[in-house]
Design a protein that fits this description.
Layout (H helix, E strand, L loop, with lengths): L1 H14 L3 H41 L2 E4 L18 H7 L4 E15 L4 E9 L1 H7 L6 E4 L9 E5 H7 L6 E7 L5 E12 L3 H6 E5 H8 L7 E6 L5 H11 L4 E4 H4 L1 H39 L1 H9 L4 H33 L4 E2 L5 H5 L5 E2 L5 H18 L1 H8 L3 H8 L1
Parallel strand pairs: 3-8, 5-7
Antiparallel strand pairs: 1-9, 1-10, 2-3, 2-6, 2-9, 4-7, 5-8, 6-7, 11-12
Helix pairs in contact: 1-12, 2-10, 2-12, 3-8, 10-14, 10-15, 11-16, 12-14, 12-15
Length: about 400
Amino acid sequence: MGGLSLLAPMAWRNLWRNPRRTWITLAVVAVGLYSILVFAALLDAWARSSRDAALDVLIGSGQVHAPRYLDDQTIAQRMAAPGARLRAVLDGPSVEGWADRVRTPAVIQSEYKTLPAELLGVRPARERAISVVPRDVSAGRYLAGDADGGIVLGAHLAKRLKTRLGKRVIVMAQDATGALAQRSFRVVGLYSASQEDEDRFAFTGIEPAQAMLGIGTDVSEISFKLADDAGAPATVAALKAAGPGLDVRPWTALAPLTAAMNSFMEAFVYIWLWIMFVLMAIGIVNTQLMAVFERVREFGLLQALGMRPRLVLAEVLLESALLIGLGVLAGAAAAVATVLAFSGGVDLHFLARGAEFFGAGHVLYPRLAPAQFAAVSALVWALGVLVALWPAGKAAGSSPAEVMSHAQ
């Protein structure tokens, strides 16, 4: 401790013997750490946005289907309405909300055009707990109840069909017997989502859909939303036990591309960290080596006066620790300020369809992750001090003989 109290003032004063070099090193560390932390926050926001865009329309945290439904997504592969055992799990504390649906490929015909789509018969009250569609109705209204015979179309699909609110469309689909069933629906609402979803999905009450298809109370799927994704394996296992023979899958199996993108975003943060650290390490080692070579005479004299090599090593390491620590503090403070400034959302509407192409929403919400920020900052500081061992070792290896050669 006595040695540290002696070395700390010396190390601090030595930092400012060459202010220009010190400020350059501070900038390298601060900018490097700032880019890592802000980039990590933006990538995390992008990953959450792309996941929400994929899951919050219909998928949820997972789904339950008849065994062969995912291979043949027609009304022929349906299942009975959830029984008491399945409902007990779905109504449990781990599940935030769930909804059973009828879902079938269909053709929608307006006065001017005929286009393919998927017809979904839904329970509006349950859908509001797990889907964003009821909140994203841009014109008209959402469905009023299970027996509502209106239809809600995507805004882009309605435009392609050349129809509008109040107009009627004919929906045709294969019923339970394999025959063609059709029904007239009045357009009561238009919803906004990605263009792909707007063109793909049309919604009506579950009872009119069941009646049209002649399937009684049977359903095509049950979508559920978990309060905590960490509990997904246990919930999936419980649902499989409660519904023997049913196909229960988490969202990662239902949307593998989204899951892969989510994992890639997380991995890319660490790839970027190592890229930036290598660049920072080059700058740190270069500046510290230059400082050591300029001070060979000083280190040799200190050892001639009785300072042990380990104390010389400790002094140079302490200088590096102080210098890198200041850069880390500056970079972390700037990153926190930036993330907090944009926590209200980063508007990507100017990218429009480009953002949708990469699976993200139109607004990203970066958030401050204290544990991640602290861990990355500590890692950068520790690795920075570690790479300074080489220059410190050079300094500790100075000798009075080297001093004499430099003095001549």
